[in-house]
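Hi,

Apologies if this is the wrong queue. I'm a grad student, and the batch job for Ion-translocating oxidoreductase complex subunit G from Parahalioglobus pacificus produced an output file that my downstream script rejects. I'm not sure whether the problem is my script or the file. Here is the sequence I used:
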Amino acid sequence: MLGQSITRNGILLGLFAVFTTLLIAGTFLQTRDRIALEQRKAEEKALLEIVPRTRHDNSMLDDTVTIAADAPGLGLTEPRQAYIARQGGRAVAAIIPVTAPDGYSGTIDMIVGVNVDGSVAGVRILSHKETPGLGDKVDIKKSPWVLDFDGRSLTNPTPDGWAVKKDRGVFDQFTGATITPRAVVAATRRALEYANNEQARLYAPLATSGDS
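Support response: The file is valid. Your script probably expects a header line. Output copied below for reference.
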């Protein structure tokens, strides 16, 4: 009797596990497309903050260039996509992923928009672990600090100027928090250098049906 009870309970547990697995799988399949759509909308919103619709007529999410994990200066740990903004088929800007590994509380994931003329279209912080009220001011939701990068380039300021004011550069630091803005300034400059070195690939014209 004991053996039969154990067997019966084992079968019931097995059936319950199968039912639960099927329920979870069904729920995932039903919500997967909706989740993917919401993620796409969130990504597009971040890109549009840097390159608004008035500046491009393509879908940046569908116009990408793969950047290798070992791309110099970008600090990536896996291959990522650069998003290309085009107007009339011509590239106007590339939005480049970059990671600052030297934030005060850890890595800072960013995207840097670089116009075809080499100037900054915009900088946004995607994720960070910086201290609330101090280092988190790099986030546009907390402070307009990142807007000071707009229009900057490798020649504006000069190389020595690409630093926080404490280091004799042109960018403000935060009271009680210098490490975080220092890391973001350096990462932004590295993204500009990458874009400058990869101009031919990032800003290449769209291939036409007549191209080989």
